[in-house]
Amino acid sequence: MALERSEVEKIAHLARLGLDEAELPHTTATLNSILGLIDQMQAVNTDGIEPLAHPLEAVQRLRADAVTETNQRAAYQAIAPAVENGLYLVPKVIE
Amino acid sequence: MQWETVIGLEIHAQLSTQSKIFSGSATTFGAEPNTQASLVDLAMPGTLPVLNQEAVRMAVKFGLAIEAEIGRTNVFARKNYFYPDLPKGYQTSQMDHPVVGKGHLDISLEDGTIKRVGITRAHLEEDAGKSLHEDFHGMSGIDLNRAGTPLLEIVSEPDMRSAKEAVAYVKAIHALVRYLGICDGNMAEGSLRCDCNVSVRPKGQEAFGTRAEIKNVNSFRFIEKAINHEIQRQIDLIEDGGKVVQETRLYDPSKDETRSMRGKEEANDYRYFPCPDLLPVRLEEDFLDAVRQSLPELPTQKRDRFQSQFGLSVYDASVLSASREMAEYFEQVQQACGDAKLAANWVMGELSSLLNKDGLEIEQSLVSAEQLGGLILRIKDNTISGKIAKTVFEALAAGKGATADEVIEKEGLKQVTDSGAIESMLDEVLAANAAQVEQYRASDEAKRAKMFGFFVGQAMKASKGKANPGQVNELLKQKLEG
Amino acid sequence: MSMHNLTLSDIARALAEKTFSAEELTRSLLGRIQQLDPQLNSFITVTEAQALAQAKAADARRAAGETGALLGAPIAHKDLFCTQGVRTSCASKMLDNFIAPYNATVVEKLAAVGCVSLGKLNMDEFAMGSANESSHYGPVKNPWDLTRVPGGSSGGSAAAIAARLIPAATGSDTGGSIRQPAALTNLTGLKPTYGRVSRWGMIAYASSLDQGGPLARTAEDCALLLGSMAGFDPKDSTSVDQPVDDYLASLNQPLSGLRVGLPKEYFGAGLDSRIGAAILAVVEELKKLGATVKDISLPNLQHAIPAYYVIAPAEASSNLSRFDGVRYGHRCDSPVNLEDLYKRSRAEGFGAEVKRRIMVGTYALSAGYYDAYYIKAQKIRRLIKNDFVSAFNEVDVILGPTTPNPAWKLGEKSSDPVAAYLEDIYTITANLAGIPGLSMPAGFVDGLPVGVQLLAPYFQEGRLLNVAHQYQQVTDWHTQAPSGF
């Protein structure tokens, strides 16, 4: 199935990737050629096969409930683009 | 047209673990912004989650308490969306394989009946941070201290039929999580938050109407008001020929109305998939057994026991078992005085009014269970009357003595039971009211019965309430009938 | 022999015998990097001051009586391992300004045994690529032919070692990113079993496939390095709590009785026949060492590429959502609202290939496509794992080419991502199944290196290193150096 331009725009929006108007045709074409490759999967018979999410099929280890972290705000915020009063700043959040 | 309301609730309970669900950061409320946000909580590149055992244990505890199927293999999934309070760009949650499956909870309704509410599932997930909207040059500030706090999201079946039922359900969940010690239930701090799915349908219709979801209602009172407002809004809308739109709404307590949050709603496609950084959680039988062993007596079990063991009414038993603290207090009083009914009356009566007046919780009570039990003992052995007991209770609350006995002693409140002393006191009272005595003796039975109370009142006043009311009655009758 | 031609093992001996000090060695290599790397572009960041400090510290530890094969050994890290106080860029504009506030477990472990890190190595942006052409810092050149790619995504690691700028380096392998560049630059590189090396601090591309590992010139050096990189890490839920084998001890086991499987699908259409011939020559050599050979089949090989290009982008699309311009990394100028902040920061910060994979992954997970793409791919993933499980009932190791072609010309495949994806055909199955894989030098085609790949059952890194080491005792492909370096 080939992606339409509008679908590409929708995917880019979901992924919060700004798209240049000029890039759109090329992006659409490339994505379609990749999807063409991926679609070869559909020919494989996978009836009765369980999906495999993790190669080793191990189980989750549980951590003891202990506070092991200390306040490192100054160090962590030293690399932040915009902070004030210990808060990360973003354009106004409207609810 | 007759309308029926259908309500289902999603309750987010913050689990009272020491550390976060996937990191070793503290979960303390009210810390300076971003001082409890570690590398993992900030979603620094390269960081990975490790699951907190206690969060799992607490979730299982809840599941066992609502007699639910436990997800023996439960799986964390990523819910992908962008929001500034969500540092990873996804929330780690559970989707297809939650830790707690189908269960149920019985709630007591005001008419004294019990209703069983179905619980669809409860799953573990991480809380988001907070956006602070005070103006930073037109920007919002993000505090990620709360990000990663463990949440148990408890999803009910659409079983509630009124706002009152919904509130009763939330109260029952609130009581349960506190009983279990898995959530502090502090709604003002957001430890327990509620999303209400509300729809209406013509009475008798089977199909559900279109629902609206009211997000984040954070007090029992607001839940009731928000739902009632929303029911009315939907009925008005339909009756005016409109249609309910499936959407998320926000309750504004200051205006007592809900409003649409369309901005956040647009075309969400969360792209859930199993989190590749976490493995499936396998719960073995011995783990479940250990959690089962650790379960305390639950509210409904307590309620039933209070009825059978103490002969209390359903109502009294429900009230006294509504919170773990209340039930514990009651049982301590009962033990101290050996009289469950008097204990129940005092806890639900004088003690509750005192707490209400001061706005205190039972665990902050100024009168301890031992003090109250000691007081009731003195009522039972006739050391004091019920009326004097209230005085003693107030004195205890005011810190005027360590025990009821000490107050009685110090204030000289001990009941007078010496017949000689009472008789001479009565003689004085009758002498001082000679005219009334004349009148009494001249009256018929009916009138005498009315006048008798006057003499009792005078006598009790003269004894400053300390004379034994039974003896006063008896001796007074003898003297007047003479 | 001059210092830069020494292997890690040679260096270990020389340092122990005090032939030179770690500081002298470090200075010499730093000089070489300064002189030669401009042609290659293998380093993103050279940490000269830190390297000298670490070298001096290593010398002091040795003077105090400490021993240890890696004490004072110079290495460098692929620039997706977080290094505290040093830029960790993932070769992306997104993280060009990212000074990591912590160390990856691999970085900590190697520092603890005394490795001296000379800097951070170039790579494909966020490890997405097999040519090292998607780096924000420009492509890396193959020392064997500067007009050709070194492979990717650990292309900087490979080029720097092949050019004798460093004896060994860390890399990461999600679909072949250690083995393929090792093959294209005449090196030995090992992708361990999934969960063997901690992923804490290794910036994620595809979490269920990513695995860190060593690149060096010899199997022995890989064994040395892996021994210190591997091990259980409580900070990584997918790390396996199992003791690390003594890889050096297993190197010298004889190969008699070794059962080698040759999957017929690895020698079919698409393989450069000259590479095929080189691989069969390796097989002959192993037979002389006592191995027996068996033809086997891995019937689902051809489905691996489509399945991989669903799973890896799906995980990546989610893993890379954290790059939003809020807490670190690139942020666009004067965003007008939240959406603008996200969309512009991400559009400016990510390169074309990264964006492409994010979009493919987003699509594969989106409503209505999840079952057809993601779940389908996970089912194929199980088929591929099952293929290996049955194959390893019959053989001890599987052998085949690492790549279908030798190094290609810079720019040759950059306009056609699908053509580049097809180059991963032989390597990605090991990542999907989680088994260990090793590539080692197997000769040359037109003066360009050819790699042979060995695959083994879970946690049998020792076996792979053993076979490679034994082969390297009787051949000298791995000792060949590119002219000019």
From TrEMBL, chain A:
Report the coiled-coil segments: none
An example GO BP is:
glutaminyl-tRNAGln biosynthesis via transamidation
Q: Which residues form the signal peptide?
A: none
> Molecular function terms in GO for this entry?
asparaginyl-tRNA synthase (glutamine-hydrolyzing) activity; ATP binding; glutaminyl-tRNA synthase (glutamine-hydrolyzing) activity; transferase activity
Record keywords, A-Z: ATP-binding, Ligase, Nucleotide-binding, Protein biosynthesis, Transferase
Catalysis performed (reactions) = L-glutamyl-tRNA(Gln) + L-glutamine + ATP + H2O = L-glutaminyl-tRNA(Gln) + L-glutamate + ADP + phosphate + H(+); L-aspartyl-tRNA(Asn) + L-glutamine + ATP + H2O = L-asparaginyl-tRNA(Asn) + L-glutamate + ADP + phosphate + 2 H(+)
Q: Its Enzyme Commission number?
A: 6.3.5.-
Function recorded in the entry = Allows the formation of correctly charged Asn-tRNA(Asn) or Gln-tRNA(Gln) through the transamidation of misacylated Asp-tRNA(Asn) or Glu-tRNA(Gln) in organisms which lack either or both of asparaginyl-tRNA or glutaminyl-tRNA synthetases. The reaction takes place in the presence of glutamine and ATP through an activated phospho-Asp-tRNA(Asn) or phospho-Glu-tRNA(Gln).
User: What family does this belong to?
Assistant: Belongs to the GatC family.
What interactions and quaternary structure are annotated? Heterotrimer of A, B and C subunits.
HAMAP family on file: GatC
**The protein's name in its UniProt record:** Aspartyl/glutamyl-tRNA(Asn/Gln) amidotransferase subunit C
Gene encoding this chain?
gatC
UniProtKB/TrEMBL annotation, chain B:
Question: Which molecular-function annotations from GO does this UniProt entry contain?
Answer: asparaginyl-tRNA synthase (glutamine-hydrolyzing) activity; ATP binding; glutaminyl-tRNA synthase (glutamine-hydrolyzing) activity; transferase activity
- BP GO annotations: glutaminyl-tRNAGln biosynthesis via transamidation; translation
InterPro entries the record matches: Asn/Gln-tRNA_amidoTrfase_suB/E, Asn/Gln-tRNA_Trfase_suB/E_cat, Asn/Gln_amidotransferase, Asn/Gln_tRNA_amidoTrase-B-like, GatB, GatB_C_1, GatB_Yqey_C_2, Gln-tRNA_amidoTrfase_suB_CS
- Per the UniProt record, which EC number(s) apply here? 6.3.5.-
Ranges for domain Asn/Gln amidotransferase come to 328-480
Question: Which Pfam families does this chain map to?
Answer: GatB_N (PF02934), GatB_Yqey (PF02637)
Query: Which keywords fit this entry according to its UniProt record?
Result: ATP-binding, Ligase, Nucleotide-binding, Protein biosynthesis, Transferase
Q: Which reaction does it catalyse?
A: L-aspartyl-tRNA(Asn) + L-glutamine + ATP + H2O = L-asparaginyl-tRNA(Asn) + L-glutamate + ADP + phosphate + 2 H(+); L-glutamyl-tRNA(Gln) + L-glutamine + ATP + H2O = L-glutaminyl-tRNA(Gln) + L-glutamate + ADP + phosphate + H(+)
Identify the Gene3D superfamilies for this entry.
1.10.10.410, GatB domain, N-terminal subdomain
Q: State whether keyword ATP-binding applies.
A: yes
> Known SMART domains for this protein?
GatB_Yqey (SM00845)
Binding partners and assembly? Heterotrimer of A, B and C subunits.
Family, per the entry?
A: Belongs to the GatB/GatE family. GatB subfamily.
Q: What does this protein do?
A: Allows the formation of correctly charged Asn-tRNA(Asn) or Gln-tRNA(Gln) through the transamidation of misacylated Asp-tRNA(Asn) or Glu-tRNA(Gln) in organisms which lack either or both of asparaginyl-tRNA or glutaminyl-tRNA synthetases. The reaction takes place in the presence of glutamine and ATP through an activated phospho-Asp-tRNA(Asn) or phospho-Glu-tRNA(Gln).
Name this polypeptide is given: Aspartyl/glutamyl-tRNA(Asn/Gln) amidotransferase subunit B
Upper classification of the organism: Bacteria, Pseudomonadati, Pseudomonadota, Gammaproteobacteria, Pseudomonadales
From TrEMBL, chain C:
BP terms from Gene Ontology: translation
> Which positions are catalytic residues?
78, 153, 177
Q: Does the keyword Manganese apply?
A: no
**InterPro entries hit by this protein:** Amidase, Amidase_CS, Amidase_dom, AS_sf, GatA
Among its keywords, does the record have Signal?
A: no
Question: What would be one Pfam family of this protein?
Answer: Amidase
The protein's matches in PROSITE patterns, at most eight in alphabetical order, are given as: AMIDASES (PS00571)
Report the top EC class in one word. Answer: ligase
Any idea where the Amidase domain is?
A: 24-465
- GO MF term list: ATP binding; glutaminyl-tRNA synthase (glutamine-hydrolyzing) activity; transferase activity
> What keywords would UniProt list here?
ATP-binding, Ligase, Nucleotide-binding, Protein biosynthesis, Transferase
EC id: 6.3.5.7
According to the UniProt record, one GO cellular component term is:
glutamyl-tRNA(Gln) amidotransferase complex
Q: For this protein, what reaction is catalysed? A: L-glutamyl-tRNA(Gln) + L-glutamine + ATP + H2O = L-glutaminyl-tRNA(Gln) + L-glutamate + ADP + phosphate + H(+)
Q: Which SUPFAM superfamilies match?
A: Amidase signature (AS) enzymes
Subunit comment: Heterotrimer of A, B and C subunits.
Q: Which family does it belong to?
A: Belongs to the amidase family. GatA subfamily.
Q: What is this protein for, i.e. what is its function?
A: Allows the formation of correctly charged Gln-tRNA(Gln) through the transamidation of misacylated Glu-tRNA(Gln) in organisms which lack glutaminyl-tRNA synthetase. The reaction takes place in the presence of glutamine and ATP through an activated gamma-phospho-Glu-tRNA(Gln).
Q: Check the record and name the NCBIfam families matching this protein.
A: gatA (TIGR00132)
What protein does this entry describe? Glutamyl-tRNA(Gln) amidotransferase subunit A
